[in-house]
Amino acid sequence: MIPRTMSTQHPDNVFIPFFAHDAALGGEDEVVEAFYAFSVLGVDEQMWDFEGKEVDEFVVKKLLEKYGSFFRKRKLGKDFRITPRVPNPSVERAEAKLLLETLESIPRSADYAKLFYGEEIAPIFEVILPMTTSSEEIERVYELYRRYIIGKQYKRVYDVKIYEWIGEFYPEEINIIPLFETKEAILNSHEILEEYLTGKNFEYQRVFLARSDPAMNYGLISAVMYDKYALFKLQELEEELSIPIYPIIGVGGVPFRGHFTPKNVDAAMEEYPSVQTFTVQSSFKYDNEPKEVIKAIEKVNDTKRKETPAIDERIFEILDKYEEEYTKELKILAPYIREVAKAVPSRRKRKLHIGLFGYSREVNGEALPRAIKFTASLYSLGIPPEILGLRALSEKELETISEHYRGLYNDISFALRFFNPKAASHFKFLEDIAKMQKEMGIEKDERHLSITTQILNGKIEESLVVEAAGIRGFLG
């Protein structure tokens, strides 16, 4: 069964989980978190993010040792999945060898499972490859595991073959889940996947579409439309190749990052009907009542995916104009975003990273923080990122977009609740947004307004950022 929900380690939450030893979750906390997601929340899959984070590489061993009675009844590798997100050596040179280490750990995890269950079972049999841009990148990881991790067991060391001495390696092959993050990669994802799948006889293929980074790079509306276009083209490819293709979408809580919250799961599934797996990020899990979270996850798990409608490619002309305006506004705001980001608290322990593409983002020539701090910074300034670039679009163009992007007006209304009209006196291009907020009769939160005014006026403190986040119910 392909999972409907994937728990992630993305730190977009305001409140600290009850099991955490520190405000920033470390390796041991994340092992407990994985068990909590499986046993209490009802999540099917845990993404294990090796890409730049201090995660525990013995997660399978620790889960089986600490929670043996639970996992005897429901098996890791069958009922639940641990899916590593590995570094992409094509772009993350400093982390490249961590890919080898992660792949090496897969047979070791299978050994722990065999001892525990008394049968051959692979708790880990898929990996996520971020920032994928070509079929060659996917092929390399697939062949690296098959030929060099598994294949080396047949080589001779002195007087014995490796498998005779150390034991056989299992599983014999793994599935590679490409994660497409750039505009070009998302729009061409069906072609890249077709190249990779040609000549193979897989039971199925999973594919991961980013949502947060495309929104940062191209704006909210473009991010939604590009993913929708990709989903339709992948649906066509599935029919053409007769191989089930199961899309994953990397959604967060705020509209800018996917608007996937316990209260909005129905709308999110309607927005992306052909998506098989939705990511359940930290804010979803910890900024809401556990009963609401469990109920929402049950709803997602019980809902079957549907077909996604076609996208009229003429809409891309509207997006070009929108992106041009979004880029201009972002360039003006970039220094303020960087400054406020320093006051946004971290919720996960990350490795040191200096200039790594995966961790210090450059958007349209501007160095900016990662998506969560980016979003939190703009909300803290009273300038939700959802409203950037909107002034470039006419009412008729917005209506045209809303025919495809069903939640457009709902998402804009949500963001306008936290827009501070005083920001228009700092940034002229926001005057149109202030008018829109007034015309739509959006009710503002006065406490949030007061805090964001202080931050706008230069009082940038972590306590204010956290207080504003508490009012909204999310960090970023």
UniProtKB/TrEMBL annotation:
Source superkingdom: Archaea
Function: Catalyzes the irreversible beta-carboxylation of phosphoenolpyruvate (PEP) to form oxaloacetate (OAA), a four-carbon dicarboxylic acid source for the tricarboxylic acid cycle.
Lyase is among the record's keywords: yes
InterPro entries referenced in this protein's UniProt entry, alphabetically: PEP_COase_arc-type, Pyrv/PenolPyrv_kinase-like_dom
GO terms, biological process: carbon fixation; oxaloacetate metabolic process; tricarboxylic acid cycle
One Pfam family per UniProt: PEPcase_2
Protein name listed in UniProt: Phosphoenolpyruvate carboxylase
GO terms for MF: magnesium ion binding; phosphoenolpyruvate carboxylase activity
TM regions (residue ranges): none
Cofactor or coenzyme needed: Mg(2+)
Major enzyme class: lyase
Coiled-coil annotated residue ranges, if any: none
Reaction(s) this enzyme catalyzes, per UniProt: oxaloacetate + phosphate = phosphoenolpyruvate + hydrogencarbonate
Keyword presence, Magnesium: yes
